[in-house]
Amino acid sequence: MSDTDFSKMRRRTFMKWGAAVGGAAMAPLPFKSVAAEEPEPLAGDTNTAWSACMVNCGSRCALRVHTKDGVITQIETDNRGDDSEFGQHQIRACLRGRSIKHRVYSPDRLKYPMKRIGKRGEGRFQRISWDEAFDLMADKLKYTLKEYGNDAVHITYGSGTQGLRTDGKDCFKRLMNLMGGFLDYYGNYSWGQIQFALPFTYGNTKPSAYGSYTTEIENAELLVMFGYNPAETRMSGGGEIHEHINAQRKRNVRTIIIDPRYTDTMLGKEDEWIPIRPGTDAALVEGIAHVLITENLVDQDFLDKYCQGFDEKTLPDSAPENGHYKAHILGQGPDGIEKTPQWASQITGVSAKKIIQLAREIGTAKPCFITQGTGIQRQSNGEQTSRAIVMLPILTGNIGLAGTNTGDMPANYGYPAPRLPVGSNPISTRVTFFKWVDAIWRHHEMTDKSDGLQGGDKLENPIKFIISCASNVLMNQHAGLNRQAEILGDESLCEFIVVCDNHMTASARWADLLLPDVTTLENTEVSSDGYSSGSMAALFPLERVIEPLFETKSVYEMCAELSKRFGLYEQFTEGRTHDEWLEFLYSERMKQDPAIPSLADLRKQGPYRIVAPKEGRIALEDFRKDPVANPVGTPSGRIEIYSTKLETIAKEWDLVEGDIVTPLPQYVVSWDSHLDPRAKDFPLQIAGYHTKGRTHSTYHNIPWLREAVFDGLWINPIDANKRGLQSGDHVKIWNDRGEIRMAVKVTPRIMPGVVGLGQGAWYSPDKNGVDLGGCVNTLTNQRATPLSKGNGQHSILVEVAKV
User: Fold this and answer.
1) Tens-digit pLDDT profile for residues 284-323
2) What predicted TM-score, i.e. pTM, was given to this entire model?
3) d(Cα 487, Cα 493) in Å, to the nearest integer?
4) Which of 235, 497, 563, 635 lies 20 to 30 Å from 207, alpha-carbon distance?
5) What residues does 798 pair with on adjacent strands?
6) Are strands 254-258 and 272-274 parallel, antiparallel or unpaired?
7) Model pLDDT, residue 161
8) Separation CA 76–CA 154 (nearest Å)
9) Distance CA 369, CA 212 (A)
10) What average pLDDT score do residues 50-78 get?
11) Angle 700-705-707 (CA atoms, 0-180°, nearest 5)?
């Protein structure tokens, strides 16, 4: 078959898909049934408009969308200027953003409102009208509010349209707040633990709650990165990697990367790669700390003046004798274990000689920029790991000076785009982002001291009604999917689930009501930069480049229609359409900041850049200059190595057996680590990571991206030989929670004892519950971490065998 014939065949398939109506039961088309392809445009006028990639990679990148007679023909990216001046560089999209037209024309596209007709999770739906959909949702919502109360309604975490400011999930929140509120969440799956844990050390007063800008790397002598991988997570012109590489190369800064996997951030850009067992970074830090203390490489003056709890001199009165950090490291603390490099080596897999060498480098490099990625805090002991890593700049005094960082993630400059007001939520109690599932089946047991509730000490009602918008959390990004299927499959628990999305995702299959959302190319918006934009912020115009396909609607339109059924139309809309809200809010922002262009000029000229000022790029700079005048937001006003707040929590909270909260940052053996007794049956740890082929689970259903980026299991040759595996073999990966099947890649880029698997693949179980989609969350644990009650989803023990 020629290329032309093949293209015609794909176009015919697309048109057949577009004409398919589903008056009877509709099942989603299988992913492999057809490659995504847009309909062939007719001869006629062409148009080019600005848009942006809006998914949750942390970046925000410009797109130039070409259309012809209402059909998208080509996607380009930022092409303005000569791209010679860093900070005014082109905001170029990666392959994911440039493939966006295939999301619009995907065979998985949701086209019409549909209601479930089979068992929940079977993926069997029937097409209904919008009026039927709104009536059904309104009736179920009214019943829930009457029988259970507003706190029985939950809007899940979701980031599929992270950049929307005047549409999307905020519209549902606005409507629910007008109706009396809903059960909200706090935190997020990306960095729930680090954001919760580090304020106990650094407080929560800006800028102490953030790291230094990536630009400070250029002033450093040494760069040490724990699990930090911007080349795969923030890999575009709108992300940190552009700035990171530029800063690193300016002075050829020596770079050490500590990671179980040889990531794309390395690939020759580092001076040294130190492989480490997942979940053991805190033990490595303690081995380094032992060398720093015994070889007098700590900055004692800094520790005395700025910190609490390093030694007896600054230990708070409430602490026990020898409760300070120095005693803990030297074996004089409660556990009596000296944290020598040899001790740390047995845990981490890093040789004692290497630990000593690394400690001496960190102790003598002035300045030293230390940072961490967020994969390492998605471990069962993630809060301890994050707190432990920041001890290295604290011990060496590499804080508040040019070329230093707090050990936190790098800071980013942002410009807030105008946002639709959502109002205040009358329901004050919130669950953690990870505990919403518990609130379905064990709400009566949940308290502030057992499950981390905020704003209240208990839950009055279980979750009975779920709204999941632009989210694949329900049945893909959450943990323990086989257990999840049991909970969501029991209709006596959660009684109604609404999913609003673009595609028939793994989570959409579990809906009772499906609402087809428009894509960002079928909507209008002004978005701001992502949260990992480095020192350059921007405003991005999004135009409606094509009319919404089929019967899709924007979330604003959906909520406006729903509001009529509750007598809230005037309050919800305030007399404005979505586009009128956008124009109104943008004009209000222009009054506050006359420097930004008009909306018409923004759409004509493309993204508007705003570069961060030179001042304020160094974290804790003011604190370093004057700690009395500029205290951090801890009880003592100092950096708290020993946290009195955590001392109280350890005494008062109801902790699950095996969970540990300590005032000091320290290594803790926790569940699903390599020292867990279960490792006898499941000897391999999985290092979950973000692939270039998708953003979390978005873009997973684009075949071209899955061909460009290997979507399978990495395994070291030593482990592969033991199991008789070669690259390309089909393997099963399993533990006592589930089983997945996929291809394997044998590579020395993963350390022995560890396998690598990209997260975000769509869960697709067969009739026996074996996941053929390759979703790592088939194998993960729903147990929450001790302190933040967050997700320890990167702590996974498995075994691997050839199928």
Assistant:
1) 999 999 999 999 999 999 999 999 999 999 999 999 999 9
2) 0.93
3) 7
4) 235
5) 684
6) parallel
7) 84
8) 38
9) 9
10) 94
11) 110
Give the integer Cα–Cα distance in Å for 115 and 25.
Answer: 10
Q: Could you give the CA distance from residue 164 to residue 419 in angstroms, rounded to a whole number?
A: 8
List strand residue ranges (DSSP E) for 433-562, in order.
465-469, 496-501, 513-516, 525-528, 536-542
- DSSP letters, 619-661, are TTHHHHH-TTTS--SSTTSSEESS-HHHHHHHHHS-PPTT---
d(CA 293, CA 287): 10
* E strands present in 14-138: 25-26, 46-53, 61-68, 71-77, 114-116, 125-127
Q: Residues 165-182, buried b or exposed e (16+ Cβ, 10 A)? A: bbbbbbbbbbbbbbbebb
What H or E segment, with its residue span, contains residue 484? Answer: helix 481-489
Ramachandran class of 567: left when φ > 0, alpha when ψ lies in -120 to 50, beta otherwise? left
Residue type, 300: Q
- Check whether the bond before 230 is cis (ω within 30° of 0): no
User: Token pair 């994911």 is at which residue?
Assistant: 96
Q: Determine the Cα–Cα distance for residues 323 and 313; give it in Å rounded to an integer.
A: 12
Residue 582 φ/ψ, nearest 5 degrees: -60, -50
Closest-CA residue to 328 (of 670, 665, 661)? 665
Q: What angle do CA 421, 425, 428 make, to 5 degrees?
A: 145
Measured at the alpha carbon of residue 494, what is the angle toward residues 489 and 499, in degrees to the nearest 5?
80
Q: What is the pLDDT of residues 506-532, one digit of tens each?
A: 999 999 999 999 999 999 999 998 888
User: CB–CB of 588/582 below 8 Å?
Assistant: no
Q: Locate 37 and state its tokens.
A: 């392809």
Place of tokens 């460009």: 708
Burial 242-255 (b: 16+ CB within 10 A, else e): bbbbbbbeeeebbb
Q: Where are the alpha helices (DSSP H) in 148-266?
A: 169-178, 192-197, 199-202, 230-233, 240-250
Distance of CA 732 to the CA centre of its chain: 27
E strands present in 457-547: 465-469, 496-501, 513-516, 525-528, 536-542
> Are residues 764 and 693 in contact, defined by beta-carbon separation less than 8 angstroms?
no
- Averaged pLDDT for residues 620-636: 96
Query: What gap in Å lies between CA 176 and CA 171, rounded to an integer?
Result: 9
Give the span between the Cα atoms of 105 and 75, in whole angstroms.
13
How far separated are the first and last CA of the chain, in Å rounded?
33
Q: What is the CA radius of gyration of the chain?
A: 26
| Length of the chain in terms of residues written | 803
CA dist., res. 232 & res. 255, Å (int): 17
pLDDT, tens only, 151-184: 999 999 998 887 899 999 999 999 999 999 999 9
Distance of alpha carbon 159 from the chain centroid? 8
CA dihedral 777, 782, 784, 790 (to 10 degrees): 40
CA nearest to 501, candidates 422, 554, 437, 434:
554
Report CA-CA distances (Å) from 28 to 108, 120, 123, 603: 7, 14, 7, 37
Token pair for residue 145? 């509010």
